[in-house]
Every structure is written in structure tokens, then in C-alpha cells.
Specification:
Elements lengths: L25 H6 L4 E8 L2 E2 L8 E9 L4 H4 L8 E6 L12 E4 L5 E12 L2 H8 L35 H4 L4 H22 L1 H9 L22 H7 L1
Parallel strand pairs: 1-6
Antiparallel strand pairs: 1-3, 2-3, 3-4, 5-6
Helix pairs in contact: 5-6
């Protein structure tokens, strides 16, 4: 557990800043007026069962940035907890803004929870940020480009203190990098120039290697892409 921000550098002069854990980032230094607990939320639509038809749930998970990212990724550590499902009919909101936890050396300290990051895929980012679909949830646009927008009343993050929901949105590697830049743009551009048949021939002609996936039938016949498949194709 970490309770104060730190600076890490790759050289003795302190010119190459290393950003690793959350407490090595600039955000923690900007917020450090008291001991903070950076709240990290994540959500995604999940199918309940392959036999339940269209039954889906929207779980919301919570963890804090004081915990090392290696520990947060371990399922057995239980560092991430399920706090609810969306949509909900009623919310029992707590009036307490702080909570007391046992800190370093067994001393009691007051932690101020502040929403620091919201992890979800790109379509959900647009919903959380209340912006137009398929538009960047972090960038500003001119007024003459704001067609089709409607007023959004009281989003869940409106009353949260010391936070900016647009800076809480984290990059979505699958939809924005693997699927967005490579699959939907670069691959489609190459396919339009060479054709699907030629693309498949090149992938089928790749040499075999123990750690390299071999697409025996090419890639045009794949209907369901996963993050791992995207990485292997690239």
C-alpha cells in the first residue's frame, strides 16, 4: 500500500521520469493536500450465460490506486470488489466523504476517496462522458461541430469532489489501438488495395514459429476477434 506520491527517474539527473504505479504520476502530486485514496472504477456489459438468450448484466467494479497494480491484477488478492450492477433503480448514497483506515506503522489516518480513473471500453466511455457516440471523450470540439447533442441532467459524477470525468477516462487498448487503428483502418486500407484473397495468401504463407500464431485459413473468415487474436495478427 502507498499513501504518498513518489518520483522515479531512470537517470541520476532526474531527466527521464518513470511512470509506473499510480503514485508515480503527476495526478497524485496535484491532489496531495491530504492522504488520498484514488478510486478506480471499471464496468462492461457481460452475458450471464450462453443459454440465457439476451440476458446481460452491467457489473461495476472498484479498486484503489494505493494498491500496487501487480496486486490488483491477482484474482486471489481480492483487491477489486463488485459494488453493483447497472442500471439500478435506487442508490443508497453515503453522506460520509472520508473513511478511517489503519495506515503505516499501525497509525490511524484519514483517507479522502477521489475518483481517479474509469476503465471501460470505448462505447461505454462515450456513455460515461455523456458525449456523442464514436467521438473522443477527452477532446474539445468547436460549437459549430456540436450537432445532435442533448442536455444531460445530473450524471452520476456531477457531485463528486475534486475530479474531472474527462481526465478519468483511460485509453482502451482493444477498441482504440488493436481494433480501431490496426483492424478498422490499417487492415481495411490494405485489403482495399490488395484484396481479401491476397491478404489471406500472405498470412497463410507465414513461416511456423513456436510463439507465432499461424492463420491457416487466412483472416477474412474470422468472425469473432479477441484481444489475443488482434495481437497475433499484428
Amino acid at each position: 500500500m502507498a499513501y504518498v506520491p513518489e518520483c522515479a527517474y531512470a537517470d541520476e539527473r532526474g531527466e527521464n521520469h518513470i511512470y509506473d504505479e499510480m503514485w508515480t504520476g503527476d495526478w497524485w502530486w496535484d491532489m496531495q493536500g491530504a492522504v488520498v485514496a484514488p478510486v478506480i472504477l471499471s464496468s462492461d456489459k457481460t452475458s450471464l450465460s450462453i443459454f440465457s438468450g439476451d440476458k446481460k448484466a452491467w457489473p461495476v467494479y472498484l479498486t484503489i490506486g494505493n494498491i500496487s497494480k501487480d496486486m490488483r491484477c491477482q484474482v486471489s488478492a481480492h483487491a477489486t470488489v463488485l459494488i453493483g450492477y447497472l442500471p439500478v433503480l435506487r442508490l443508497e448514497c453515503s453522506q460520509k466523504k472520508t473513511c478511517s483506515l489503519a495506515g503505516c506503522h499501525g497509525r490511524e489516518m484519514v483517507l479522502h476517496p477521489i475518483l481517479a480513473a474509469y476503465i471501460t471500453n470505448f462505447p461505454k466511455q462515450c456513455l460515461v462522458a455523456c458525449n456523442k457516440e464514436n467521438c473522443c471523450p477527452c477532446c474539445l470540439v468547436k460549437l459549430d461541430k456540436c450537432e445532435g447533442l442533448h442536455m444531460v441532467y445530473k450524471p452520476f459524477w456531477k457531485a463528486l469532489p475534486f475530479m474531472d470525468i474527462f481526465t478519468c477516462i483511460t485509453p482502451n487498448i482493444l477498441h482504440q489501438l488493436h481494433k480501431g487503428i490496426f483492424h478498422d483502418h490499417l487492415l481495411q486500407w490494405c485489403t482495399s488495395l490488395m484484396g481479401e484473397k491476397e491478404i489471406n495468401i500472405h498470412f497463410q504463407a507465414m513461416t511456423h514459429f513456436p510463439t507465432l500464431h499461424h492463420f491457416k485459413k487466412g483472416i477474412s473468415t474470422i468472425s469473432q476477434w479477441t484481444s489475443t487474436a488482434h495481437k497475433e495478427m499484428q
